[in-house]
Amino acid sequence: MSVFRAAGAAALLLCLALPVAAQGIPKVQSPEEVGFLSIRLKRLSDRINEGVKNNELPGAVVLIVRNGKIVMFDSFGFRDKEAKVAMTNDTIFRIASMTKPIVSVAAMILMEEGKITLADPVSRYIPAFADTKVAVPNKQADGTVEIALEPQARPMTVQDLMRHTSGLTYGAIGANPVKQSYLDMKVNDRGQTNAEMVDKLAKLALLYQPGTTWEYSMSTDVLGRVVEVASGMALDKFIEERITKPLKMGDTAFEVSADKKARGAKPMKEGPKNEVPSIPDVTEKFAWRSGGGGMVSTAADYARFLQMFANGGQLDGVRLISRKSIDLMTADALPPDVKMGVDMYRFAALEPSGRMGQGFGLGFAVRNDVGRSPLPGTPGDYYWGGAYGTYFWHDPREHLYVVYMMQSPAARLRYRYLLRDLVYQAMVN
User: Which of 71, 108, 259, 353 is the most buried (most CB within 10 A)?
Assistant: First the structure.
């Protein structure tokens, strides 16, 4: 055997010997290799185990990557606490609003193909939105509120959808006549198509003038329909063909096949009523392909999605979008005079407001400074989570991203705070 062949064989054996996880993302030999202290990472593990023991959450999966290598990929507690089935790293979760970044990337793909621009009015793709009016509350002498309607001062744009300044809202967060109309019209009906959903929304009043107010909303659901119209494909098919299949995210979709049912995470009883949250099984199929919250995934799959961002839009030789599109998505897109919707205080330390030193990009929140938020982080990091408990953030300056998966709505904010605190305290270099 030649020297060159022997060296190649040795290199191959070395590669095979290295621990590999998360579908091609290599694992460090020790956390110290990339600036973490093992003894400090144990604080994170201990705290999650404590939460499981104290019935704060059923279980969780944590995946930490720095410098393109896995620092921690561990599972805790139970995939199904009632059945005493242990959590595993390949557990599949309903990721709710962590769907939004994926659909936002779908829109960016179409932008790069010249099929949409972010400055386009939404009515270019969904004509009914040209006639949508804006609600103007008028308080009467007897204390009641009447709603008048006025035209849009300027059209709602695709950018408005991506940064949640569209004037749309959610029916479940807060209470007023506009939000009540969402409930009355059943805009969240899982039996409807995306086309039927936007037809309903376009007939209802906007809560705010487009561009004036950050109001977390069904904007990304409407964006999903824009993707369908502009591409000529159903949203789920477009995402499969253009995002999840190229990135080898085999467990990420709007539902998974029946043979994967046993891998689905189950919630436990929680909250003030001590009841099981209404989280659909990962195999349930709905006509409504919710761009705002309908997908399932695993920690490993979502790590591949974030690694694509970390690599400037490509992974394993596959380029989804350009580096400049990544730059645009991860910059604060909110106007300096934007207001926060009256119910947005519910986001607490994660509120994308100037007073918290945070804003919102195209599909997720972004951090603008260090000190205003009570949570550690770095200017330029971006993050989002799902109502069922899942959460991620990416800190480009520190070459760090974290994926946290659990099915526990009641514990979600607390554990997002703890996760940030305990990850950063373990990173010493």
Answer: 71
